[in-house]
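Z., the sequence and structure:
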Amino acid sequence: MKKNLLLITIISVLTLLAACGDTEVEADYQTIDLDEVLTKQEEGYTIVDVREVNEYEAGHIEGAINKPLSELREGNFEPLVDDEPYVIICETGNRSQQASDLLSKESYDVINVSEGMSTWQGDVVQ
């Protein structure tokens, strides 16, 4: 009887732990290639460059705004608003993916760019 009670208790605890373990909200966004960025901009998406300020100032896509990933990680989302669509870009695609994960979980409408400014062939402004 004690063995059955112990077995039932262990199974119950494991089931409870498994149910509680997956509380993370899954990111919900699409990823596009660099050649689709300007099309999305024309469709009304704002390009958000999540590189650091010095990287952004060295050259960025015209019309892009700068919001470093480091600020997003601190919970500083201004000037972004949750009812506008954004295309997220960085240097190589790593930081933009992290920013897209973070912003998507905060209910922002984002599209991640799989590559970044290191392979951008279009015009840049400083």
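The chain has five helices and five strands. The chain has one domain: 28-119.

Let me know what you think.
H.
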